Amino acid sequence: RVAMNASVYLNGRLIGRHGQVGDGVTRNWNRSLFFMIPNGLLQPGTNVLAIHVVADRVGVGLMREIYLAPAEVLGHFHDLRNLAGTTLLYAIVGLMLVTALLTTGLWLLRPRDTLFGWYALMLAVWSVHDLYFLVTDSWVNPILLEWVWHVSLVGFVVTVTMITSRFLEIRDPAFERRIAWWLLASVALLAI
User: Fold this and answer.
1) Do residues 182 and 155 make contact, with C-beta atoms less than 8 angstroms apart?
2) How are beta strands 5-10 and 13-17 bridged, if at all?
3) What are the backbone angles phi and psi of residue 171, rounded to the nearest 5°?
4) Which of 7, 47, 82, 135 has the smallest CB count inside 10 Å?
5) pLDDT mean over 103-128
């Protein structure tokens, strides 16, 4: 696993990369990368494995541990890691969006019960937050993507606070007006 992408060379020959490594680098950091060593490329004696890690900005490039084993052994673990890191996350995001839509319907039927509205908004905000982990080829500006991630994290905290106050039937209009600062801080964060 790397952040964000890697080119893998064995004895000076490229054996693989997943996506782009130049402008618009593919963001593989939530995925496990799997490379096969072609037959005949390993030499008797010393072999050199070189990995060129590329990130979409300075300071975020990293590489986790490397495993070398027969494909039939590693393939299974690669599939399990990607199931946990991406497939299940897609399913969770989809479920949250469906639940957000259903809860929005409940709120529209009972507009005075704002708990439903806040809960739907919380699910939508957290879905956007999790989509950040699933975007690979960034057709979106990476700075904008980072902004959305940070704003959605703050938005999640705000919506959970509102859900809690609604559930406990605590009304503080002055506090709730201060929630608008979240919007102003979000715009300011984009300007930085």
Assistant:
1) yes
2) antiparallel
3) -115, 125
4) 47
5) 95
Q: How does pLDDT run across 93-112, given as a tens digit for each residue?
A: 999 999 999 999 999 999 99
How far is the CA of 53 from the CAs of 9, 42, 140, 143, in angstroms? Answer: 11, 22, 21, 20
Look up residue 154 and give its two tokens: 């703050």
CA distance 31 to 183: 32
Q: Give which of 119, 40, 121, 132 is closest to 86, Cα–Cα.
A: 132
Q: Contact, 34 vs 72, CB < 8 A? A: no
- SS3 for the chain, per residue? CEECEEEEEECCEEEEECCCCCCCCECCCCCCCCCCCCCCCCCCCCCCEEEEEECCCCCCCEECCCCCCCHHHHHHHHHHHHHHHHHHHHHHHHHHHHHHHHHHHHHHHCCCCHHHHHHHHHHHHHHHHHHCCCCCECCCCHHHHHHHHHHHHHHHHHHHHHHHHHHCCCCCHHHHHHCHHHHHHHHHHHHC
Q: Which residues contact 140 (CB under 8 A, 6 or more apart)?
A: none
- Which residue, among 50, 66, 61, 57, has the nearest Cα to 5 in the 3D structure? 61
pLDDT, one tens digit per residue, over 73-100 is 898 988 998 888 888 999 999 999 999 9
What was the pLDDT predicted at 104?
A: 97
